[in-house]
Design brief:
The complex is a heterotrimer of chains A (296), B (252) and C (284). With 252 residues, chain B is an alpha/beta fold. Chain B has helices at 51-59, 86-95, 112-122, 127-140, 157-169, 187-202, 214-220, 238-241; strands at residues 6-17, 23-35, 40-44, 66-72, 78-80, 97-100, 175-179, 206-210, 223-228, 231-237. Chain C is α/β, with parallel strands linked by helices and 284 residues long. Among the domains of chain C are: 22-136 and 199-232, 3-Layer(aba) Sandwich (Rossmann fold); 248-284, no CATH class. The chains are: A alpha/beta (296), B alpha/beta (252), C alpha/beta (284).
């Protein structure tokens, strides 16, 4: 693993121009229960747990750092309990974080730590700056509402008031996500899992957010359905120049969608790598174990 | 002879297998050579010699254990690929260094023309230009227009490989790494592909390639670098090295 | 020795003016003032036990009783009719505890308490309209969680409401909500317009009179001050339409321009909802 330079602080300019980060995460941490320095020192991969044996508190995530630029996708890989979903929920605002910062280029040009914003302000970001696609479509959709209606939701939240315009936009998004248009007025509860996921993606893209977070987007779907959804996501990522964070335990998903990724174990980041390098030359013992298991 | 584009300096690669008692496997040792723009360097050596390892190191799919891989940017500045940050490597791969392997990786179910167009866009072409060039490439590689909107997953192995080549060569990067790019092609299509690759040198692209047939090497290479058991054992012009090579030196 | 009921009961204890004690009236008036300051916002108040059961206008009644003064004249209607049983009872309750004048002419009234209609005659700045509200929450049926409802109003996040209007239009071709149509008041709060029909909604917009809404069972009051914007929620390309009478006329006075209701019977016959207006037209 090549250590990354803290480029915002150093004066040395790299001769290679890398795109500016759309989202910058520094020191993101989440604890449950009272935490002291000792608790952090007593947890993590070397101890095989995120739970402090002394206090019972949990260091669900500690000191997570990454940048993602527009047009890039970053993966967060790990098994369950690794903290990867915790990180996503903290960035999304679904869960309060304990420490750290998240800066978004689209919000105050990256000058404000969005973790310091009020819950109401965080919610506003979710309308058109940052979208989330959840593993369970039911979490990101209103099941009793039609496919078109689920898309009308973020549109009206963003101020759309023209019924025809809303219909046109909804049709366009459903078309892009390959949902048959003759199902636009069916309630989502009547859709299959894969179709629900497509509607969730369409809804997430409604207001052209620059940043999209995906939490296990195809877990739970049948393999053939999942690959179709992955293809779709990959195509949209490229076409729309989004900055994307994908959380998954599945290396096939990470390989398909991302160029770089971080590996988490017991709340810590153990490796930070190019995706192809992680899959072919993993450095950390845990990464090696995961990759070997995935390959077999 | 023009100034090199890439300098491989005393490069070694050792894998540490943590889950097998930290056993170490050395795949490359003290490899040094350089490639200048317009050169087509063939990598020869029997299976396990370290050819693919070397390609992957240059592309940074493998991390460097020791040594430097110095690359000259278009600006004239040099960078050590082994010390770049991940985002820098991603940027480098976009425009400067390309890789064409035998397989179509992680890109099934995408229309053929989209895949090649997309590769062009990632190298900095406008969408329209990329689409035009994609069409030209695909025609030259004998991919019928009727296949252009077809998803790559339903193509034959040979068709996939040709699409791969088209994507790899569109708006070619300054250094192209080829890993058996024509192995699955029938003779006629192999010819077309080799023609296309031959033109790269003329365009000033530096190529480092692994081919498993002596004929392709003879037609394309300007130099041959021979490897054995992770060491570089010979490096010279094609006309002096080629006669010494046995088919077993290149066949897997 | 036989006693009369009066002897046993003793002398009648005095009933305060307008039934409620001064502290109660003050509390209600304070809530109303808050409501007027925040148009469309539902203000909680300590809804008292009234001589009418919940669901029969106790909220509207408490407002009227809190604001009434000796010089006021009261009109009470139910579905536009002064002579409906409920209207009669409420009016009697108010006049007997205050001694004030009652009327069926909108012009002569200063306080008009109503369920389901706004009188046809125009009201002005010397009128106060008091509406009886069963369900003050416009988002009822769309969101069940109390905290979430509070948040939606607090943040002006009405997207769920818009989705329900969208779904309505998609399912039915039109927005079908008939009574209690949700309106945006002063560009801020979405408000339930009680069970008044769509016909009357445009008359709330920039009205000269003050409208007070009382929900006794739900314990909320809200207000639309004079000259306030009241916009029925609809998409900009889906015009808000009032009930169509399809050429029907009042069978008593021939009017086509007032809100008509059907009288049940073998033959469908229409008549004016506002009975006082209709009577006056006939006697002119």
């Amino acid at each position: 693993m090549v250590p990354s330079k803290e480029n915002e602080m150093t004066m040395t300019k790299s001769p290679i121009i890398t795109p500016q980060a759309a989202i910058r995460v520094r020191g993101l941490s989440k604890f449950f229960g009272p935490i002291d320095e000792g608790a952090i020192a007593r947890t993590g991969p070397e101890f095989g747990t995120a739970r402090d044996p002394l206090s019972g508190s949990i260091v669900a995530a500690w000191d997570v750092n990454f940048d993602v630029a527009a047009g890039e996708a970053l993966g967060i890989v790990g098994e369950s309990g690794s903290g990867k979903s915790t990180v996503l929920r903290c960035i999304a605002g679904d869960q309060p974080s304990s420490a750290g910062s998240v800066h978004l280029m689209c919000h105050d040009e990256g000058r404000t730590n969005v973790l310091d914003l009020s819950p109401a302000a965080r919610r506003k970001l979710r309308i058109d700056q940052l979208s989330v696609v959840y593993q369970d479509p039911a979490e990101g959709l209103s099941l009793g509402v039609t496919a078109g209606g689920n898309i009308a939701d973020p549109l009206t939240a963003a101020g759309w008031r023209n019924f025809e315009a809303i219909r046109v936009r909804a049709r366009d998004l459903l078309d892009r996500t390959e949902v048959p248009l003759d199902r636009m007025d069916d309630i989502v509860r009547n859709f299959s899992g894969g179709m629900r996921q497509r509607v969730q993606i369409a809804r997430a893209l409604a207001n052209n957010p620059p940043i999209v977070l995906l939490d296990e987007p195809t877990t739970g779907l049948d393999a053939s359905i999942a690959s179709g959804v992955l293809d779709l996501i990959r195509g949209l990522l490229e076409e729309l120049d989004l900055a994307v964070v994908v959380v998954s335990h599945d290396f096939a998903v990470i390989e398909m969608l991302t160029q770089r990724c971080i590996v988490m174990q017991h709340g810590r980041v153990v490796e930070d790598a190019l995706t192809d390098q992680l899959l072919e030359d993993p450095q950390h013992p845990y990464s090696q174990k995961l990759v070997t298991a995935a390959r077999s | 002879m023009n100034s090199p584009l890439i300098n491989v300096c005393d490069v070694s690669k050792t894998f540490v297998l943590h889950n097998i008692d930290g056993r170490e496997v050395t795949a490359l040792q003290n490899v040094s050579f350089s490639i200048a723009p317009g050169e087509h360097v063939a990598l020869a050596g029997s299976s396990g010699a370290g050819k693919s390892t070397l390609l992957r190191l240059l592309y940074r799919t493998y991390t460097l254990t020791k040594g430097e891989i110095n690359f000259r940017l278009s600006s004239g500045e040099w960078v050590d690929i082994g010390k770049l940050t991940d985002p820098e490597v991603v940027a480098l791969r976009g425009r400067e260094i390309g890789y064409v392997s035998q397989f179509l990786r992680a890109q099934p179910r995408r229309a053929v023309i989209d895949l090649v167009t997309r590769a062009g866009v990632s190298r900095g072409m406008s969408r329209n230009d990329a689409r035009e060039h994609a069409a030209i490439s695909l025609r030259r590689l004998n991919i019928a227009e009727s296949l252009w909107e077809i998803h790559t997953s339903v193509l034959s192995g040979g068709e996939k490989q040709r699409v791969n080549i088209a994507a790899g060569l569109i708006s070619p990067p300054r250094l192209l790494l080829l890993d058996e790019p024509v192995s699955a092609l029938d003779p006629e299509n192999r010819e077309r592909a080799i023609d296309l690759i031959a033109q790269l040198s003329e365009a000033g692209v530096a190529v480092l390639a692994v081919f498993h047939d002596l004929d392709a090497i003879a037609r394309l290479a300007t130099r041959i670098v021979v490897m054995s058991h992770g060491h570089l054992i010979d490096d010279g012009p094609v006309h002096s090295i080629l006669p010494q090579l046995e088919p077993t030196d290149v066949h897997p | 020795m036989n006693s009369t009921v009066d002897e046993i009961a003793g002398p009648p204890h005095s009933v305060p003016f307008a039934l409620l004690d001064e502290e109660s009236k003050r509390e209600i008036r304070r809530a109303l003032l808050q409501a007027v300051c925040i148009p469309g916002f539902q203000v909680p108040f300590g809804s008292r036990e009234m001589p009418v059961a919940r669901g029969w206008g106790s909220g509207g009644l408490q407002i009227s009783l809190a604001i009434v003064g000796v010089n006021d004249t009261i009109k009470v209607i139910d579905q536009g009719d002064d002579e409906g049983v409920n209207a009669v009872n409420l009016r009697r309750l108010i006049t007997s505890s205050t001694g004030i004048e009652e009327t069926s002419e909108t012009d002569e009234a200063t306080i008009v308490q109503s369920r389901h209609r706004i009188p046809e005659d125009a009201m002005a700045s010397d009128h106060i309209l008091v509406l009886q509200v069963p369900v003050p929450e416009p988002l009822r049926g769309i969101e069940r969680n109390m905290k979430e409802l509070e948040r939606m109003h607090a943040e002006g996040d009405y997207s769920k409401m818009w989705v329900s209007l969208y779904e309505d239009k998609v399912r039915n071709g039109v927005i079908t909500q008939t009574t209690g149509y949700p309106c945006l008041v002063a560009q801020r709060y979405v408000t339930a317009t009680t069970p008044i029909p769509r016909w009357d909604i445009p008359r709330l917009h920039q009205a000269e009179f003050l409208t007070l809404f009382g929900a006794g069972r739900e314990k909320r009051v809200y207000a639309i001050p004079p000259f306030t914007d009241v916009e029925p929620l609809t998409f900009e390309d889906v015009p808000f339409e009032v009930e169509a009478s399809n050429g029907a006329k009042c069978r008593l006075c021939g009017s086509e321009e007032t809100f008509l209701v059907e009288t049940p019977g073998s033959e469908s016959r229409w008549s004016c909802s506002d009975t006082a207006w209709c009577r006056r037209k006939r006697t002119k």
